[in-house]
Amino acid sequence: MKGRELVILWTLVGTLFFGSLDAQLQAGFYAASCPNADSIVRATVIAGMQASQIVGPSVLRLFAHDCFVNGCDASIMLVDPVGNVEKNAGDNQSLQQLAFDTINQAKLALEQACPGIVSCADIIAMAAEVVVNQMRGPSWSVLQGRRDGLTSQATGVAGHLPGAHMDLPALQAVFGNIGLGVQDIVALSGAHSVGFSHCIEFTDRLYSFNGVPGATDPSLSPGYATTLQGICPNGNFNPTTLQPLDPVTAAQFDNVYFQRLQIGQGLLFSDQILFVDNTTTGLVTTYANNEAQFFNDFVNSMIAMGNAGVLTGSQGEVRLNCSVVNAVVSSPPAPVVPPPTTTPTPVPVPPTVPTPAAPGPAAPVPPVVDLTPPAPVVIPTPTVPTGPTVAPQPFVSSPPPPAGTS
Ligand SMILES: *[C@@H]1O[C@H](CO)[C@@H](O)[C@H](O)[C@H]1NC(C)=O
Ligand SMILES: *[C@@H]1O[C@H](CO)[C@@H](O)[C@H](O)[C@H]1NC(C)=O
Ligand SMILES: *[C@@H]1O[C@H](CO)[C@@H](O)[C@H](O)[C@H]1NC(C)=O
Prior knowledge:
mainly alpha; Peroxidase, domain 2; lactoperoxidase activity; iron; hydrogen peroxide
């Protein structure tokens, strides 16, 4: 709550004193530098959603995963040949490659329109808004100006994501990590108005609740339990089966999710607990009865979540390819040893590097070069014999940034 108030306050202040604050997100951040940024993201996401119904919910989930782990810095997008990044951590079951593809496609289009300007972290936040809006939910002005992080670690994920088996205190702990409270938990859970889950996430509620063989979760309506048992047979379910979190209006962002909690038809334990735990019963009832209130609170909570641990100003970088950190070519520092008698040619860039997305002149980042095709992110690049130092970004082994949100 505090975080949300701060966001709103800072937005206001930032509007009044534009330019005097460099560390806050703002609406219309790309109005001058990339005027079509919003429409490019919108068009790409809509095309993705038309191609597959799982794209929308998956993009929404991608945004949450990114923000809950190490802040909204697109660290979830980084790939790594040895799999030591957030994307590969055990909790990634709910992430769909199609969501990553959609963000990467938006990035590709943006790099053509305005190279080196729009961060991947902002693309994810903007894409999430498009999804909600396209599924007939609310729309809002997305605050922008996030920069992309330089690190991503698989080990940073455990304990930071909301889980399907969490009770309210456990949810409060993970949401609290990024400054979110009880109202945010309930409002953001409303995103389960759309999307799907796998049998593995809820079969214990059907067959072995609390570890008791044969026990069914008493908070689950018996009729719905029977339906779900048919979809996910005990010990014999299809691991790829996708069960809608709200099967009544699965493709529509609305408050039916909350109405289903009132009749014991929440799919996950972490859904139903919002109605069972009397700390949040009232909020569930409010949202079930008043969709406008749900939309209003959901937007505020999305903005608050989107502010978690963001990098701004000169922190991080604007990645040229969301999957890898930029390779930095630093000019050599003032020489500490006498120059050699034979003069090596200080060629800054290998001549053969293709630059499909060369940084534009207006890029507000240090000089970068897109080493796209080779770019091994973990294995250090073989030393270049002459010329300036090529410093590979050791994003896997470096410690996480000191942002205190995760
Ligand atoms: C999830 O992690 C596994 C194991 O590292 C990996 O094989 C898979 O590609 C990841 N899923 C996504 C969508 O990245
Ligand atoms: C909430 O539930 C707890 C037990 O789970 C109970 O002790 C408490 O009295 C309840 N509070 C209200 C206001 O119903
Ligand atoms: C981005 O980087 C990934 C990983 O190195 C690579 O597979 C992909 O082709 C790159 N995308 C572009 C557009 O260069």
